[in-house]
Design brief:
By secondary structure, the chain is mainly α. The chain contains 6 helices and no strands. The N and C termini lie far apart (73 Å).
């Protein structure tokens, strides 16, 4: 971090200085979450590749089919359902979604 702060000098170009300030701010605000070595040890992805591939699979494959038309609200619902299908959270996600729709039923006497 010290080296990054030291590189933020008047000798830098006007275009580079905001980028250095932004990098310093990001590291100060999010440094505790930027533990690549720890994430690797846990087998977690640290690059953007898995995220980009998931977005492509969730959105592009489904929404860019020939003749497809979507409204914001219905498209959002489809994406949420597709994310549940592709994850290991289908059962818990559907249970959570349906919980708000359940109403108590009384037997008629």
């Amino acid at each position: 971090m010290t080296a990054l702060r030291d590189s933020d000098t008047d000798s830098m170009s006007a275009e580079a200085t905001p980028a250095v300030h932004e990098a310093i701010r990001d590291l100060e605000n999010n440094g505790e979450r930027m533990n690549s070595a720890g994430a690797r040890r846990q087998g977690l992805p640290i690059g953007s590749g898995p995220t980009e591939a998931t977005c492509k699979y969730l959105f592009e494959v489904r929404f860019r089919r020939d003749g497809s038309r979507w409204h914001d609200e219905s498209g959002s619902h489809v994406v949420q359902l597709r994310a549940l299908v592709l994850s290991v959270r289908w059962d818990s996600g559907i249970a959570f979604a349906l919980e708000t729709l359940r109403a108590p039923v009384r037997l008629a006497s």
